[in-house]
Amino acid sequence: MAHPLVEQLRFTRSEWLRGLEDVSEAEAAQRFGPINTISWMVGHLAAHEQRTWLQRAQGITVSAAVEPCSSGQPPCSPPLAEMWAAWHAITQAADPYLDSLTTATLQTHLIVNGQPLPENIGTLLRRVTYHYWYHLGESQAVRQMLGHTGLPQYVGKIPPYQPESDNSHD
User: Fold this and answer.
1) CA torsion, points 43, 47, 49, 55, in degrees to nearest 10?
2) How many CB atoms lie within 10 A of CB 18?
3) I need a surface site. Which of 38, 41, 126, 161 has the fewest CB within 10 A?
Protein backbone atom coordinates (compact mmCIF):
# COMPACT_ATOMS: atom_id res chain seq x y z
CA MET A 1 0.00 0.00 0.00
CA ALA A 2 1.20 3.51 -0.81
CA HIS A 3 1.96 6.07 1.89
CA PRO A 4 -1.26 7.53 3.37
CA LEU A 5 -0.48 10.98 1.93
CA VAL A 6 -0.20 9.42 -1.53
CA GLU A 7 -3.53 7.69 -0.96
CA GLN A 8 -5.01 11.09 -0.08
CA LEU A 9 -3.76 12.48 -3.38
CA ARG A 10 -5.32 9.53 -5.21
CA PHE A 11 -8.63 10.09 -3.44
CA THR A 12 -8.43 13.78 -4.36
CA ARG A 13 -7.79 12.88 -7.98
CA SER A 14 -10.88 10.65 -7.93
CA GLU A 15 -12.93 13.56 -6.57
CA TRP A 16 -11.50 15.74 -9.38
CA LEU A 17 -12.75 13.23 -11.93
CA ARG A 18 -16.13 12.96 -10.18
CA GLY A 19 -16.49 16.74 -10.05
CA LEU A 20 -15.86 17.16 -13.78
CA GLU A 21 -17.84 14.23 -15.08
CA ASP A 22 -19.94 15.01 -18.16
CA VAL A 23 -18.43 18.45 -18.88
CA SER A 24 -18.50 18.99 -22.64
CA GLU A 25 -15.70 20.39 -24.78
CA ALA A 26 -17.70 23.59 -25.39
CA GLU A 27 -18.54 24.04 -21.71
CA ALA A 28 -14.91 23.49 -20.68
CA ALA A 29 -13.83 26.34 -22.97
CA GLN A 30 -16.27 28.92 -21.60
CA ARG A 31 -14.73 31.74 -19.64
CA PHE A 32 -16.54 33.82 -17.04
CA GLY A 33 -14.66 37.05 -16.43
CA PRO A 34 -11.28 36.41 -14.82
CA ILE A 35 -12.12 32.81 -13.84
CA ASN A 36 -10.06 30.19 -15.66
CA THR A 37 -11.73 27.77 -18.03
CA ILE A 38 -12.27 24.17 -16.94
CA SER A 39 -10.04 22.91 -19.75
CA TRP A 40 -7.25 25.17 -18.45
CA MET A 41 -7.78 23.84 -14.90
CA VAL A 42 -7.34 20.25 -16.10
CA GLY A 43 -4.16 21.19 -17.95
CA HIS A 44 -2.95 23.30 -15.03
CA LEU A 45 -3.17 20.48 -12.52
CA ALA A 46 -1.57 18.10 -15.01
CA ALA A 47 1.25 20.62 -15.46
CA HIS A 48 1.71 20.86 -11.68
CA GLU A 49 1.94 17.08 -11.30
CA GLN A 50 4.29 16.82 -14.28
CA ARG A 51 6.57 19.58 -13.01
CA THR A 52 6.73 18.12 -9.50
CA TRP A 53 6.69 14.31 -9.88
CA LEU A 54 8.12 13.88 -13.36
CA GLN A 55 10.34 16.80 -14.35
CA ARG A 56 11.79 17.77 -10.97
CA ALA A 57 11.82 14.33 -9.38
CA GLN A 58 12.84 12.27 -12.42
CA GLY A 59 13.81 14.54 -15.33
CA ILE A 60 10.89 13.29 -17.43
CA THR A 61 8.39 15.25 -19.54
CA VAL A 62 5.35 13.29 -20.66
CA SER A 63 3.32 16.04 -22.32
CA ALA A 64 4.31 19.46 -23.60
CA ALA A 65 0.61 20.15 -24.28
CA VAL A 66 0.08 21.27 -20.67
CA GLU A 67 2.84 23.89 -20.63
CA PRO A 68 0.50 26.75 -21.72
CA CYS A 69 -1.48 25.98 -18.55
CA SER A 70 1.49 26.42 -16.22
CA SER A 71 1.43 29.20 -13.64
CA GLY A 72 2.31 32.60 -15.05
CA GLN A 73 1.21 31.82 -18.60
CA PRO A 74 -1.47 33.94 -20.32
CA PRO A 75 -5.06 32.69 -20.11
CA CYS A 76 -5.97 30.00 -22.62
CA SER A 77 -8.71 27.49 -23.37
CA PRO A 78 -6.97 24.35 -24.63
CA PRO A 79 -9.02 21.45 -25.99
CA LEU A 80 -10.50 19.52 -23.07
CA ALA A 81 -9.92 16.10 -24.65
CA GLU A 82 -6.24 16.93 -25.11
CA MET A 83 -5.93 18.11 -21.50
CA TRP A 84 -7.65 14.99 -20.15
CA ALA A 85 -5.39 12.76 -22.28
CA ALA A 86 -2.34 14.60 -20.92
CA TRP A 87 -3.67 14.49 -17.34
CA HIS A 88 -4.22 10.73 -17.51
CA ALA A 89 -0.79 10.12 -19.08
CA ILE A 90 0.98 12.34 -16.54
CA THR A 91 -0.76 10.94 -13.46
CA GLN A 92 -0.19 7.37 -14.66
CA ALA A 93 3.50 8.13 -15.24
CA ALA A 94 3.78 9.78 -11.81
CA ASP A 95 2.21 6.89 -9.89
CA PRO A 96 5.28 4.60 -9.74
CA TYR A 97 7.31 7.44 -8.26
CA LEU A 98 4.53 8.24 -5.79
CA ASP A 99 4.30 4.54 -4.84
CA SER A 100 8.00 4.61 -3.93
CA LEU A 101 7.60 7.37 -1.34
CA THR A 102 8.11 6.51 2.31
CA THR A 103 7.90 8.60 5.46
CA ALA A 104 11.68 8.99 5.27
CA THR A 105 11.71 10.14 1.63
CA LEU A 106 8.86 12.58 2.29
CA GLN A 107 11.24 14.40 4.62
CA THR A 108 13.88 14.85 1.92
CA HIS A 109 14.09 17.56 -0.73
CA LEU A 110 14.08 17.33 -4.50
CA ILE A 111 17.22 18.74 -6.12
CA VAL A 112 16.63 21.25 -8.94
CA ASN A 113 19.59 22.89 -10.72
CA GLY A 114 21.91 21.45 -8.09
CA GLN A 115 19.99 22.99 -5.20
CA PRO A 116 17.42 21.43 -2.85
CA LEU A 117 13.92 22.88 -3.15
CA PRO A 118 12.89 24.78 0.00
CA GLU A 119 9.89 22.50 0.60
CA ASN A 120 10.39 18.83 1.32
CA ILE A 121 8.68 16.13 -0.76
CA GLY A 122 5.95 15.67 1.86
CA THR A 123 5.05 19.34 1.71
CA LEU A 124 5.07 19.20 -2.09
CA LEU A 125 2.70 16.23 -1.94
CA ARG A 126 0.33 18.12 0.32
CA ARG A 127 0.60 21.22 -1.89
CA VAL A 128 -0.40 19.24 -5.00
CA THR A 129 -3.31 17.66 -3.11
CA TYR A 130 -4.58 21.01 -1.80
CA HIS A 131 -4.13 22.55 -5.24
CA TYR A 132 -6.67 20.06 -6.58
CA TRP A 133 -9.22 21.05 -3.92
CA TYR A 134 -8.77 24.73 -4.78
CA HIS A 135 -9.50 24.16 -8.46
CA LEU A 136 -12.23 21.62 -7.73
CA GLY A 137 -14.16 24.36 -5.93
CA GLU A 138 -13.46 26.80 -8.75
CA SER A 139 -14.61 24.27 -11.34
CA GLN A 140 -17.86 23.65 -9.48
CA ALA A 141 -18.56 27.39 -9.45
CA VAL A 142 -18.02 27.45 -13.23
CA ARG A 143 -20.35 24.48 -13.61
CA GLN A 144 -23.02 26.33 -11.63
CA MET A 145 -22.59 29.37 -13.91
CA LEU A 146 -23.00 27.02 -16.88
CA GLY A 147 -26.37 26.02 -15.41
CA HIS A 148 -25.36 22.52 -14.36
CA THR A 149 -27.51 20.99 -11.67
CA GLY A 150 -27.16 17.82 -9.64
CA LEU A 151 -23.46 18.45 -9.06
CA PRO A 152 -21.58 16.27 -6.57
CA GLN A 153 -22.28 17.26 -2.98
CA TYR A 154 -19.66 17.47 -0.29
CA VAL A 155 -16.87 14.89 -0.41
CA GLY A 156 -17.45 11.39 -1.75
CA LYS A 157 -16.98 8.21 0.23
CA ILE A 158 -13.49 8.05 1.65
CA PRO A 159 -12.00 4.56 1.43
CA PRO A 160 -11.80 2.29 3.28
CA TYR A 161 -14.35 3.75 5.72
CA GLN A 162 -17.76 4.19 4.13
CA PRO A 163 -20.03 6.34 6.31
CA GLU A 164 -23.77 5.75 6.36
CA SER A 165 -24.36 9.28 5.08
CA ASP A 166 -22.03 11.64 3.24
CA ASN A 167 -23.88 14.72 4.46
CA SER A 168 -23.44 14.24 8.21
CA HIS A 169 -21.13 17.27 8.34
CA ASP A 170 -23.02 19.58 5.96
Assistant:
1) 150
2) 13
3) 161
